[in-house]
Design brief:
The chain is mostly helical. It contains 5 helices and 2 strands, in the order αααααββ.
């Protein structure tokens, strides 16, 4: 992501009360990300059954690994790489999409849960 856009995203998060103080908060931020990924899957044409099936297969695969060892940095990298590839295949610019979305986000009201995760205040 363009450094200026990244800086604006982080500032928007801080301005709306978002935080992540320690490793105990990570799973709640990851869960928020998962929800957005589900929306991305639906927007791309997947149906509920396909999404649930893929999630269950991945959970099963990961639970079968010894000690269920996973590296957070590797998984963030995988997510970023796959998002970049998907944006390329759909002829979308992540930077342009984020800049456009930020304009919308600034017009909405937000609340932060006890883990520092930002949610739209509906």
């Amino acid at each position: 992501m363009n450094p200026e856009i990244k800086k604006e995203v982080i500032q928007w998060t801080i301005d709306n009360g978002g935080y992540c103080y320690d490793e105990d908060d990570y799973k709640h931020h990851a869960s928020r990300f998962l929800r957005e990924v589900v929306e991305l899957c639906l927007a791309s044409g997947m149906n509920t059954e396909e999404i649930i099936g893929d999630c269950l297969r991945e959970i099963t695969k990961q639970s079968e690994k010894p000690n269920n060892e996973m590296d957070l940095a590797d998984e963030i990298a995988d997510s970023a790489i796959l998002l970049e590839i998907f944006a390329h295949h759909t002829n979308l610019s992540i930077d342009e999409a984020v800049a456009k979305k930020l304009k919308i986000l600034y017009t909405r009201k937000w609340k932060t849960d006890i883990y520092g995760v930002i949610w739209r205040d509906k």
